[in-house]
Amino acid sequence: MRIAFFASGNGSTFQSLVECIRAEKIAAEPALLICTKDNAYVLERALSLGIPCEIIARRNYHDGAAHAAAMLETLEKFNCDWIFLCGYMELVPPQVVSAFRNKIVNIHPALLPAFGGKGMYGARVHEAVLNYGAKVTGATVHFVDEEYDHGPVIAQQVVMVRPDDTVERLGERVQNAEKNLYRGALKVLASGKYEINGRIVKFIP
Hints:
Blueprint: E1 2-7, H1 12-23, E2 29-35, H2 42-49, E3 53-55, H3 64-77, E4 82-86, H4 94-99, E5 104-108, H5 123-132, E6 136-143, E7 153-160, H6 167-191, E8 194-197, E9 200-203
Parallel strand pairs: 1-2, 1-4, 2-3, 4-5
Antiparallel strand pairs: 5-6, 6-7, 8-9
């Protein structure tokens, strides 16, 4: 498993996964970071971790096909066979999804299919949860398909919503759950002890 990480921002989840791979000797190699912004802090994290970086953003290409081609060429150059999204703020091109079917993984800060879809990320999700009056939220790791937050669910973790929660307080607890859940899912996927049947993902003991 040679992983390309896709990110657009701070990169704390990216760093958490890389450190987990190295500390626990998981059968995976952090091979590449693809970032959409040349000033994102995640680039500094990648530099300190010794991981190559490439800037590939949709705005830099005249059409979607050229964007996808550049992405696929870069992934092939670094021999990547898995993609993990870590705060990636663009829709993965359909050509890339097709080439990496059930090999692209994302983490979402809610219990999908609730509070997902286009525009639902970060604090927006937690604000929506609180405004709706939901009593539970959480984190979801899922495979990526051609739609936002739609692919088969790999794992979920519940976070209780407290009566005195703010967006910031809830977001902090959900982020902690996300990191734990993502690390656990990575271990299972790297081990190969899972199977996919349609939308159903089962772990194999």
